[in-house]
Amino acid sequence: MTPGSTPAACAALLRRDLTLAWRRRGDIAMPVLYALIVATLFPFALGPEPQLLARIAGGVVFVTVLLAVLLSLDQLFRADIDDGSMEQLMLAPQPLALLVGMKILAHWITSALPLIVVAPLLAGMLKLPAAALPALVMALGIATPLLSLLGAVLVALTAGSRRSGMLLALMLLPLCVPVVIFAAGAVAAAQEGLPWIAPIAWLGAGLVMAVVLAPLACAAALRIAMDT
Amino acid sequence: MANWVPLWLHRLGSPPVFYRFAGAVRPWALGLALVLGAVALYAGLFVAPADYQQGDAYRIIFIHVPSAWMSLFIYGAMAVAAFVGLVWRIKIAEVVAMESAPVGAAFTLITLVTGSLWGKPMWGTWWTWDARLTSELVLLFIYLGIVGLYHSFEDRRQGARAACFLVLVGAVNVPIVHFSVNWWNTLHQGSTVRLVGPSHIEASMLWPLLTMMVATKLYYIASLFARVRADLIASEGGKAWVRDLLVREGGAA
Question: How much is the pTM?
Answer without folding.
Answer: 0.88
